[in-house]
Amino acid sequence: MKVNFSYIALSFISIISLISCKNDLDVLAPGEESVSVYGVLNPNEPVQKIRINKVFLTDGDALEVAQDPNQINYGPGELHVTLQRFMSASSTTPTLTTVGNATRKEIVLTETVVTTAGGNFSQEQRLWQTSDKLYTSGEYRLLIKNVSSGKEFTAQSIMIDSVKSHNIMPFIFIPNTYPVHCGVGNAGYVAATIPGTGTQPNAYINYNVLSQTKKIIFKSVPNAKLYKVTMRFHYIDSLMGGAGIRNYVDMSFPSLTSTTIAGNEELSVSFGVADFYSLLASEIPKKTTGSIRHRTAHYMEYIIEACSENMSTFLLVNQPSTTIAQDKPNYTNIVGGTGIFASTSKTSLGKELWSDFIDELSNNSTTSSLQFIKRYKFICP
Q1: Phi/psi of residue 253, each to 5°?
Q2: Residue 223, Cβ neighbours under 10 Å: how many?
Q3: C-alpha closest to that of 349 among 98, 100, 44, 11
């Protein structure tokens, strides 16, 4: 039987654990030209990449054919791929596409070939990319044109801004009372103050009471539906030979879905402080290389990734089945093709640690074997 072999490889917010992978096999009408597209725009990233594959017919083993890059990839110059930006879904007049360029109203993506991880598909993949900085508002429309046949494929996605700081700890910015790590973060606050020199203790991250439950609270942004929160603990391994190795441990949380896409909805995740200490005790030894002289607690980073509603729908439809029924609906917003064209955003905010918290890492029975030293100074960056 002839089958349509389309490849979708997903990675959110660079993303992230919100994304799954799926290989679709669908019946394709003879003579019908189609494409498989995976493009997720992120205005926080320096380079935007869109993967476009052929959708092909074969009478043989589809997995064997999929290893042939000529079967799944378009050749050099076969496609003309562009992005335009519109201020509303009903607008027919493109506006500025590139931040910092007062005239550009169309971005022409350039081709590149990359080598991907091994699997059922060819490791050689052709991407279309641009380093133009994108806006966080408006709607970007993708146009893919086959230069030879004239066939066009289109898609569109509204952009989403990054999550902003909130007036509830720890996702917060208040000048002079809640410094961010090395002065980098939302609102560009500069110059962290060393704990114990007049700054309020609650201005720093302090997870020193194991019986407590802590929350990470933020507000949703317009047009985003799905959110992923990660708390990243940064530390430095000082080796016997004198070298210092920077590392981190992530505490991840279940994905959050906002009720609406209007924005300004309060969302939160929570965790037990004792669970955080247990996580460090479990994960840090796995990352250890060389003989450790001591460890230094560096800072805490809070990462919030968001994705547009069409991406949320795509992920929901393509999540692994929990029943024996394997027939599932298909979702795509590619006109004339299959796959997804969507948008994501990412906010990353580093916070300094309070000295009592760092001391507890050193003293607590759960983490004492990790050889954390007590705080003596900030390390920046």
Answers
A1: -130, 155
A2: 22
A3: 44
| Residue 54, in any domain of the structure | yes
Can you give the pLDDT at residue 170? Answer: 59
Is the peptide bond preceding residue 94 cis, with omega within 30 degrees of 0? no
Helix H segments across 211-330? 273-287, 309-318
- The strand pair at 110-115 and 124-130 is best described as antiparallel
> What are the Cα distances from residue 111, in Å, to 15, 108, 127?
22, 10, 6
Cα 211 from chain centre = 32
**Phi, psi of 240, deg, nearest 5:** -60, -30
**Residue 272: beta bridge partners?**
213
CA distance 306 to 161: 9
* DSSP secondary structure, 310-352, as one string: HHHHHHHHHSPPSSS----------BTSEEEEEEEEEEEEEEP
* Ranges of the chain whose pLDDT falls below 50: 1-29, 62, 172-177, 185-199
What pLDDT is attached to residue 67? 56
* Amino acid at position 378, single letter: F
Look up the domain containing 198 and give its range: 181-306+346-370
My answer on whether 254 and 323 are in the same domain is no
Residues 226 and 355 in one domain: yes
- CB of 185 within 8 A of CB of 173? yes
Q: What is the per-residue pLDDT for 180?
A: 67
Residue 347's alpha-carbon distances to 240, 300, 344, in angstroms, are 36, 14, 11
Q: How far apart are CA 180 and CA 203, in angstroms?
A: 10
Give residue 196's pLDDT.
Answer: 40
The residues that bridge with 97 in the sheet, in sequence order, are none
Residue 274 three-state SS: helix
Q: State residue 362's pLDDT score.
A: 95
| Closest to 74 measured CA to CA, from 56, 59, 60 | 56
On whether both 329 and 219 belong to a single domain, the answer is: no
What is the number of domains present in the chain?
A: 2
Distance from C-alpha of 150 to C-alpha of 369, rounded to nearest angstrom: 66
Residue 363 CB partners (closer than 8 Å, separation 6+): none
Tens-digit pLDDT profile for residues 138-184: 999 999 999 999 999 999 999 999 887 666 665 544 444 455 676 55
The pLDDT score that the predictor gives to residue 240 is 83
360, 244: one domain: yes
